[in-house]
Amino acid sequence: MSRTLLSLTAAGLHFGSAPLFENVDLLIQKEDRLCLVGRNGSGKSTLLRTIAGLIEPDQGERTVMPGLRISYLPQEPEISGYETLFSYVGSGLSGAEKEESYRIEGALDEVKLDGGLRPDTLSGGELRRAAIARAFVSAPDLLLLDEPTNHLDIQAIEWLEQKLMGYRGTFVVISHDRAFLIRLTNGCLWLDQGNLRRNSEGFAKFSDWAGHVMREEENERARHKTKLRTELAWLQTGVTARRKRNQGRLKRLQELREARARTIARFDKSRIAAESGAASGKRVIEAKNITLSFGANRIVENFSTRINRGDRIGLIGPNGAGKTTLLELLMKDLPPDAGSVLHGANLTPLVIDQKRQELSAGETVREILTGGRHDHIEVRGRPRHIASYLQDFLFDPAQMDSPVQTLSGGERNRLLLAKMLAKESNLMVLDEPTNDLDLETLDLLQDVLSDYDGTVLLVSHDRDFLDRLVTSTIVLEGDGQAIEYPGGYSDYVGQRPKKNAAEKPKQARPIKTEAAKGPKPARLSYKDQRRLDSLEKEMQELAKIIETLEAELADPDLYARDKKRFDLAGARLTLSREKLEAFEEEWLMLEMQKEGLPS
Prior knowledge:
The chain has 599 residues and is of the alpha/beta class.
């Protein structure tokens, strides 16, 4: 009996005169668990719809095994025309199956949704779960899934993983969730420049395989004295060069996590007995016993944390648990019911929220970045030529004067990140920054955040992204409990308390032990108040001196031209930075004393 479920032979599809893909040969066989990867705009979703039979190829043939049940999950489920969730999920059945209401009820129960709800009232996560229920309700032989984890929280993603692990059929999935792909796939389809390549290993081996393919193709072009295609430069950057940089980053991240673990342990101890000395490093945010409720809904209760310069903090939890609200509390955009939040000196935050700003379709890339037709852009206070800066974000410099409307979705996301990340900041706040980003842009964002010398607060459901980036993870369980664990998502999984069905689960050591107390009266003496008033001006003056010295040392010819001046400027810079750090610690201690908070 043939194992082939579906095949494409010499299939091609054109948009206008340009081929989206051509001469595609594909066999999908029983027990295949394939991921379909490629750049945004490469045609992945269109190819998946062609496999599903929703689009007819311009050339070639599509052959399907008789009686094959195919179920397709689109990126954007179509809910118009359905009065209830029950009827929407039931539309995944055919013929007499539509009368088998128990199948619909079972599918809805599995995703914890009420069949009587109207589809147009659902949140993004609820609609995605309903679409997954519809995809599974017919018990298909072949599942075609386009970004199934979009809008799902981590709990729902892990449930879907378990569902697919137990699924006895075949699937092809498009996803930007690396952890999801690594756990589930046994083969890779790579669509690039209209060509489809296949590897018989899962996504875990994609980087090594793709790097090998790129090197072979580059060597072949070199032998024929042909130029490497600009369109493939993203992969060479994303696979080969990035791998080398990541080795150093991984070591550095581990060091930062160990330092963060010591900070958490020390801060927890200080809740019982005050520390004998000042905490090491600059304090950026100090939250003390904060509590917030909306009516009967307790968002966070009695939570404390101390965030230092250079920390990269991830916030995770189910949809609706209050992650964005906790961000607002930590940023002092929302006052707590009890407790307090104190910020360090000279914070310059950059906030990238879920909505993201829109790009004007009529403007060019150059105009978006520079505000006009200039050749330079200010990148965190320093001038950069726009061509060089665009290459950092995987653009061809020839795209400088391209209208935004000609860019793909992935390119627009990269352009928006380039615009936002150029702004000067020392605290970056990102709420779901990985939504709708392709793999190359996720890599790019990770690069930027890994090299960022400020502090990062990050809400994300992307487990791999968290594992590769954050120094600690604050987990909101949805019951008012907020607990901080050193490390990324995998570290949290290893540290979280094991649940016992016979008893209420014990909580891991939270960074909070005391009852919330109101602010105490100011305790500053006249002398201390005068010192506090003068510190801010002194810190601003030192910051200007540091900026001047950094600019002087940035001159690549200074060392050769005047070594004595180079050494003197370097020594002054080191001393100025140390002095500024001491001033900031002193300022923070006085502010905390003024607010009646323990230091």
